[in-house]
Design brief:
Number of helices: 7
Radius of gyration: 16 Å
Structural class: alpha/beta
Shape: globular
């Protein structure tokens, strides 16, 4: 019986948690420090949305194995995002000094990563990792220029975040062109 309870608990921890911000919800605006290529600047979601859709992804911590894989995946796909008129930003609880290094080495200076040391952005997007609330959950959002969330995906495994957000952008682009 103890083994069964342990297996159930383990399975519940391994299952992905889903974000509470649903598609159709207005994305909370934020302004924060970010780093691109090791250079700090002020990032404003509202300003970026004026230029096109934004892929906002939350990740637990810079330089951890899954977060490194995910950063590489986004960096490798950045031209595909640009071709769809979208920009990408990653957000974690890490401080800006750590992100300066991460933006160069793991993001390959291709897209910015933003600091959220007080977790205000993570909380506003319901992207807190339940098992370890000091970290962000691995959650990706696609936000239309109107500020509407058009796609959300939560999974601690980094493998599908890039392909899923690209597909959501392609679908939105097709629907947007016909309207």
């Amino acid at each position: 019986m103890k083994k069964i309870i342990a297996l159930i608990l383990l399975a519940s921890i391994a299952l992905p948690a889903y974000s509470a911000l649903n598609t159709g919800t207005k994305a909370p605006n934020f302004v924060t420090q970010a780093s691109l290529g090791g250079k700090v600047f002020t990032y404003s979601l509202a300003e970026k949305l004026k230029k096109g859709p934004v892929v906002l992804y939350f990740y637990p911590a810079a330089f951890t194995p899954g977060c490194t894989i995910e950063a590489h995946n986004f960096a490798d796909a950045i031209e595909k995002y640009r071709a769809l008129g979208a920009t990408v930003i990653g957000v974690s609880h890490d401080d800006i000094e750590k992100l300066n290094k991460f933006s160069v080495s793991e993001c390959r200076s291709k897209f910015p990563v933003a600091a959220d040391p007080d977790q205000s952005i993570m909380k506003s997007y319901d992207a807190i990792l339940a098992a370890k609330p000091e970290y962000a959950n691995r959650t990706s959002y696609v936000i239309a220029p109107s500020g509407e969330i058009i796609y959300t995906y939560t999974d601690l495994h980094p493998d599908q975040h890039v392909e899923n957000t690209l597909e959501a952008l392609r679908k939105w682009g097709k629907e947007h062109k016909t309207n």
